[in-house]
Amino acid sequence: MESRILGYVDGRLKANERAELEKHLADCAPCRLRVQEFSAVSGLLDELPLIEPSPEFDTRVHALVAAEPAPKASWWAGLNVSPRIAFAASFLLLMALWIGYRSGPVDKPLPANDDQAMLQDLPVLEDHDVLQNFEPLKSLPAPVADEASDTQQQEQM
Amino acid sequence: MVRTDVQLMLDVKAGDGNSFELLLRRYRTPLVNFLYRMVRNREQAEDLAQEVFLRVYRAREDYVPSAKFTTWLFRIATNLALNSVRDNRHQKLEVSIDAPVTVDAEDGDERPLDVPEKHPNIEQHLVEDARRKMIRHAIDKLPEKQRAAVLLHKYEELDYAEIAKILNCSESALKSLLFRAYEALRVELAPLVAQPSGTKS
Description:
The complex is a heterodimer of chains A (157) and B (201). Chain A is mainly α and 157 residues long. Chain A has a domain at 2-45. Chain A contains eight helices and no strands. Residues 146-151 of chain A have low confidence and may be disordered. Chain B folds into two domains: 1-93, RNA polymerase sigma factor, region 2, helix turn helix motif (Rna Polymerase Sigma Factor, Chain: A), CATH 1.10.1740; 102-201, Orthogonal Bundle (Arc Repressor Mutant, subunit A), CATH 1.10.10. With 201 residues, chain B is an all-alpha fold. Chain B is built from ten helices and no strands. In chain B, helix 7 (144-154) packs across helix 9 (171-188) and helix 8 (160-166) crosses helix 9 (171-188). Chain B is globular, with a radius of gyration of 19 Å. The chains are: A mainly alpha (157), B mainly alpha (201). The A-B interface holds A 2-3, 5-7, 10, 12, 37-38, 40-45, 47-54, 57-58, 60-61, 64-65, 68, 71 and B 20, 24, 28-29, 32-33, 36-37, 42, 46, 49-50, 53-54, 57-58, 61, 109-112, 128, 131-132, 135-136, 139, 150, 153-155, 159-160, 172, 175-176, 178-179, 182, 185-186, 189, 192-193, 197.
């Protein structure tokens, strides 16, 4: 009941709570006294007058607010793009990326039989390198087809 | 048509400076009075009230009307006031709260301008002045959370649910807090409480 006394004094109780408390007050002298005293305290608090803010108050608030930085705008806010156009542009970009992924140049692995063919050719290539750089061959006479130069050499010998 | 606080705040969020001006005019006096009664220094109270408005302005873009505007506003104010009271207490440890009530510079703030006309009898004026000092002193002696609860309940007329949110407690805890506060005021103001009405002066 105690917690309801202040609500009763300032008229904040619901109708049923008020009726219940009044029924209790009829039989309880200490609670009746408390209601009387709290009403007196509430009346005393009403005696304090209000103060008015100083004339400079608003000016100071205005100055504080004016010194605040402007709200941060997102980088695309200045473009003023409508949501439909933004959606369409995003869709096209995604489509382009998808198509690019599907059809772009790809390093495909060589077929297995191509590998084997290359391995079979390797000895030929190696022979070709050896023969091309084989020193004893360089000391041999020129090919037979050039007979004129051969006879000149023999004459010199 | 009068726009509600929430409508005004949503307009501030949308960039309407006039709506902020309306909120400032609507709440500057209640805020300054609440803070003045919390910190007992007019200049400090005004500084804190300006800080409250600045914080409201800063938070405009993130504002979501999930609670009453006054709950949000006075929650900011109460937190600032409680921090300020605690800071002041550390700075003024040498001043006893039991010191007799004396004339201080702040008392002049609440004096109505038409005192001579309203109180041709200077003796009556002095008696009323002494009553006010006693009442202010009784409020000052309350622990800060009880004081905030009384001020929000009595002068700002916020409902229990709002005050409970502001003070971050349950409604039942708030009712208990208020009961203890009124008990303390009753004891402190016993000489005035005992006076039958009509014998104030």
